Queue: 2 jobs
Job 1
Amino acid sequence: MDALDALRGHLAELADLSSLGHLAAWDQRAMMPPAGAPGRAHLMATLEQIAHDRSTAPQIGEWLEQIEAAAGDDGLTDVDGDLVRLARRDWEQSIRVPSDLAVELARAGAEGQASWQSARAASDFAAFAPALRHNIELARELAAHLGDGDRPYDALLGLYDFGLTAARVQEVFGRLAEVLPSLVEQSAVDPQTPRLEVPVAAQEAAVAGALRRVGVTPDSWRVDVSAHPFTTWMGPRDTRLTTRYEDGQLESILAALHEFGHGLYERQIAPELDRTNLGSGTSMSMHESQSKLWENHVGRHPAFAALIADDLTAAGFAIEPPALQRTLELVRPSLIRVSADQMTYPLHIVLRFELERALIEGTLDVADLPTAWNDGMRRLLGVEVPDDASGVLQDVHWSSGAFGYFPSYALGCVIAAQLWETLESDAGPQADALGTGDTTAVAAWLGEHVHRFGRRLDTEPLLEHATGRGLDPEPFIRHLERLVP
Amino acid sequence: MDALDALRGHLAELADLSSLGHLAAWDQRAMMPPAGAPGRAHLMATLEQIAHDRSTAPQIGEWLEQIEAAAGDDGLTDVDGDLVRLARRDWEQSIRVPSDLAVELARAGAEGQASWQSARAASDFAAFAPALRHNIELARELAAHLGDGDRPYDALLGLYDFGLTAARVQEVFGRLAEVLPSLVEQSAVDPQTPRLEVPVAAQEAAVAGALRRVGVTPDSWRVDVSAHPFTTWMGPRDTRLTTRYEDGQLESILAALHEFGHGLYERQIAPELDRTNLGSGTSMSMHESQSKLWENHVGRHPAFAALIADDLTAAGFAIEPPALQRTLELVRPSLIRVSADQMTYPLHIVLRFELERALIEGTLDVADLPTAWNDGMRRLLGVEVPDDASGVLQDVHWSSGAFGYFPSYALGCVIAAQLWETLESDAGPQADALGTGDTTAVAAWLGEHVHRFGRRLDTEPLLEHATGRGLDPEPFIRHLERLVP
């Protein structure tokens, strides 16, 4: 079928352009000398423009019509059927956004970030409010083009997690908001508990050891340092993760395992999906579940943590496994999301979900946001916010117009626990294997039940396929209950 | 003028695509894990296809016609006049090559390189001959499309150096072939003279010292290690060079200065030419002259070499400046071009020029190439070639179809010496400044007389502008005569 070949060729080009974008972004964050920034902005804008032109090309619609008319449901292989279905979905979505709105979204996002940076430096929410208000208006306009206009937040959520709704998120997050604050209260350590001070050299040895055990090899991976840890990939055999060593604690090790989880997901997608529209992780929440699984259920597992303790001890930072274990599982309510522990972290997200949904639906005014934030932090985490910089201004997301992105962080924790329970039920308890540093059964189970599908299944169908049920917060709650002293 | 704006926008996009190609190639050679190679090949092929489509777009011809019809010679600024002139030249050249020939050239080049690699490993020229023959046929076909068919080699030469002819190269190279063998004979050291064995740590200190003195700063440059040293740039403020430390000698230091010369050229092009078709070095030979100037006339200058000796000594490899100077200027005829000294190097190129011209013009058959090579090495350098691997199979160029590229290497030496003589005549002798590690006068003179023009002037007009005359081998010969004991 000629139209299918043409569509496949076009999708392969789009996949390559996406990989080039990944490369340019990786380089910008991990390698580029600072003075290269203005030139890089031009280069990335040109690349985005080309990718946008090709994603919205009218030929895609023509090919799809020809394929759909000729094939019906029977004439295509399963993979090609999914490929055509997703190509139609992506194309319809991309042509629904008027190009002047797309340009204004990009412009306002860049301007919003600049406004946010200076407002955060001055801890002055009022200075950021106009840019935020404009971003919200644009997001509503975008939502009106994407959806039916009744549920604007759902339309935005769908950009990151197709098929997910605010109502569904609310079911899950409502349960977390109900249970977690009391677990936190029972588990929280004295805020004065001193933190570990692990020398960078010992952290480096432990990062190298952890990554070696999970299968990171230099022939096919890179591990670098950047201000914020991240993962990227240029095709299935070139995966690059970063970590950071700034704060003298163990974040570097957990961050490296977290980023490994993202990388492994992309590497284990079925090779036949490579360079198609199906050859990437299916959603932000499913991606985050993969990073959280390796961070929370492997890295913090007592058996694996004992190996980390051994590595730290061998590198000159003597620590007993139980002491390391206690540190990794410490619950300490705090102001800042990115440095939160695994029990308090989801509550930071619950708050952001409530607030951004209200902002988009018009039930919360921007002027009232700082108060709503501070009230929420008191209600969910029991902490007092001293200033906007460590409160409502701490995250970049809203400044760049990314509404609907936050939920994936906590859904990732929920899904990770759900997958881990099923994995241990299917493949048996992993303590013995993790105690020898053997994670092959974990990787194989994830490959078979999650990774290989790429985008062929959306979040909840994939989860149902892997675990027999949709989003379910109970495994995560059970995981956290074990932390209560 | 709308057409001019449209053309400028299009050229800016092409410049960005070129920078993306630079980034992908730099990453491939300096950063990419080996398993990423197949994915990278797809990605670069897609990028090349997009750049090719845009370089040959019919709209370019329409815009040019509108601009030329409306403007005549008077309606454009000088820069815009050059921009339009070069845009027409580049476009005419690109549309002359049929797309099936372009595809076959790329395919045969890739296949030729694979054939060459295995033939070189086996030192078996016959195994490479069929691929070479095919590349020559394709190069002749390309030349027939590009030129009038009478002078096929000139057409190929023009791909790297617009306006240059084989006859002009022959004038210069004939003079080198006449003078240099006798100078080599008078200067060559005993082949048994031992080589320096400089520890890598001392080399690294000397590389860092040399690059710091010439102005390489981490805010705007990167210095990495790769198998073969090279330079690339992503816009004027992001320059990346590599060196290598493999062989225990001083090549790392000279290579770093060589690559710095390439980088500085691109950085000192007038900012108004950035993201236009004029914003890059004008030719391969002029680019090579910039690298050779910093390698031969700065790095090997006794005053600068004394600082290198100091750095080596401080790093634990004690050496007196005169001893280092003798090593840097050692003349030792050898088989391999890339490790040749500054006096014998051009003779390796003269041989390649003679042979590739004869291959393209049909006066030398591929079957007779190894004998012709070995005869030439005996005649020009007085060395016996023991096998094809260290003879005719040593370079990659012909295997990838690059005929007409080699001359730029020796023309670079010639132009460098010519520029250096004029520079010292204009700005005064540089010994005192170099002795303090101050190269600002050198960089400033090159910026003013060479770099800022970008592609606005071709090689010989630029050289005439800078030195008052066209290609002239005499300054280089005078430079080499000083090496005769």
Job 2
Amino acid sequence: MFAKCLENVRNTEPVIHNITNYVTVNDVANVILACGGSPIMSDEAEDIEDITSVCGGLHINIGTLHKTGIEGMFRAGRRANALGHPVLLDPVGAGASALRTDTALSLMNELRLCAVRGNISEIRTLAKGSGTTRGVDADAADAVTEDSLDKAVEFVRRFSRQAGCIIAVTGSIDLISDGARCYVIRNGRPEMRKVTGTGCQLSGIMTAYLTANPDHPLEAAAAAACVMGLAGEIAWDRMQDGDGNAAYRNRIIDAVYNMTGEELEKGAKYELR
Amino acid sequence: MFAKCLENVRNTEPVIHNITNYVTVNDVANVILACGGSPIMSDEAEDIEDITSVCGGLHINIGTLHKTGIEGMFRAGRRANALGHPVLLDPVGAGASALRTDTALSLMNELRLCAVRGNISEIRTLAKGSGTTRGVDADAADAVTEDSLDKAVEFVRRFSRQAGCIIAVTGSIDLISDGARCYVIRNGRPEMRKVTGTGCQLSGIMTAYLTANPDHPLEAAAAAACVMGLAGEIAWDRMQDGDGNAAYRNRIIDAVYNMTGEELEKGAKYELR
Amino acid sequence: MFAKCLENVRNTEPVIHNITNYVTVNDVANVILACGGSPIMSDEAEDIEDITSVCGGLHINIGTLHKTGIEGMFRAGRRANALGHPVLLDPVGAGASALRTDTALSLMNELRLCAVRGNISEIRTLAKGSGTTRGVDADAADAVTEDSLDKAVEFVRRFSRQAGCIIAVTGSIDLISDGARCYVIRNGRPEMRKVTGTGCQLSGIMTAYLTANPDHPLEAAAAAACVMGLAGEIAWDRMQDGDGNAAYRNRIIDAVYNMTGEELEKGAKYELR
């Protein structure tokens, strides 16, 4: 199934509209190309509807959020919704500032999202802020470890049902749920945290996978997370004496570029709960 | 001649003012350094005239156009015109949105441009929009291939005369005309499309070449296109097992950095029509 | 001492708030990770105080200054001052435009800076503009060479006393003074000028070092300059046939990533005046 997801991206070359931060935008563009998609960037409110209309999917990332850019996110999102394009939100820094938390929550409330991808702190912030009266288990706030896994899976599943979209929590263990099933993924390397923007890159890849696999969004999202994690493993194996995080960054994108469906099926480490 | 153009860049180290998109701006800066120029970036309207005044050439790229940035493009362009600096326009996405098409056409109408460099779709959009009553051959809209070459050359030549500046259409075959002559260039590799911003990079290099070779702008523009394409070929030959588009990106810039005039003369594949 | 400074960064992982230009921001993020810190970027005035509050140090760089971004620089700076966080200013392009010069001077006047790091032209501009009636020796305007060294040291020392913060002038010889003592550092390679943003990267590293070594700011700033220069030397030794400025850029960051305290002590080339 994951191989099929990968091949669908390579065969359809989905065009992805990215409204993203200026820190990691170049890597996001190159990794979308590496996985088989085609990236376009535009964040000007008066440009954004035209651009989204020529794309197949929309990726919104609030990593360097500007107040003047928020309107464009909504306009692009509404247009993408009208066109039936998948929309993915990466709520970078939700919880670290009020503006980011509020903007992410508004985007979740006013747009029909296909998926939200973030780290556990960001997702926990959104779950708390969404006004559920059931509360959110504080334990789920902790890093997802083998010990806290059961509770974390339950948290992600519940928040996915509540939010009405796929929730992807990524970290040393990735949890990706559509409210019913939950993929638990153990690909990746801890050193990936030393490369800026591997999360943003995964959001870009995931949007391409969601766009190219409209009938199987959960599998597409899980496949994308396995691609990124496995690329981190393959890239690490190619590291040479003297290489550091800059070489690693390049090698990760290269591993995405060269990944085959067979390699993905063989290397993906996941269970379905 | 091309060797001389290259050496003029290396010897004069032209300072290039870039108003460009935030996606590929770092690669544009590094490739301008690689070819022998010196890049400066500024897009704030109140900063831009001072900056352009300390430069030798101006490169305007609308890849992530903001409405608030348009005034600065005009102010920089008018100042560069007053100072006699060459101005190059890269109309990224013209045809994909009304804002981009309109802005590119206004820049062409109100500034005295030295060159416009884009892909065939962007250039076709500008040619249509410029209000010619002779019309533009729809066949020229197609990708430039050996079969459509004669018509495409005629289209580029005619649009160059009409626009009053060099028109550079780049793709698998590059066509660069000053209205009289037209260079047909066959350097490059198809894999260059898998690296984001190779077109933006070429625009940066071309501006440096135009600035350092004021007496031979057509040759300078053609030399720049050969440099970029040849760098893509040299870089491809240096690819190793496991390398992908991130490694390729670095190797292309490295090939520009190491290119000699002799290498350029030997590797340039062009004819003059 | 320098080894201790390095280890303090690696052990405390200081979180650094960067308000910086969009040209070199990705390299700044990766080099801060490489040296052991953790970068966050935010330049929106309404976001910036929240973000600075979760950080340990603030790095302000005016490389692509926007008028709309200036308010945020002051708000972040005042908040960082209130929290006792070190603030470093990189006055990119001071002297090249009135907006940059004026903004840099205002930031120096209204914020309590820990350090200002720039090239000799930028620092000279600030020294002139600060309204000293003693004047600034015009000779100090020249590049810092062995011949002009004595005068340059005196200039930097005097301006540091006047400005009330560390002044770091970097170039082929680096001069870093707190008004009393002055480090004269001879690490680095001339080829580093061919990589865009090595100065911005040093400013990022220096902010991390200042944050992790609050009791020894002068040593921390000097150690950071040695780290960057030594990384440039190590990276150069690793260059292979066909490598250029793109490979060099990656190798420099990799050398920062792999540098040990022992290596730094052994490779640092400095004298204290």
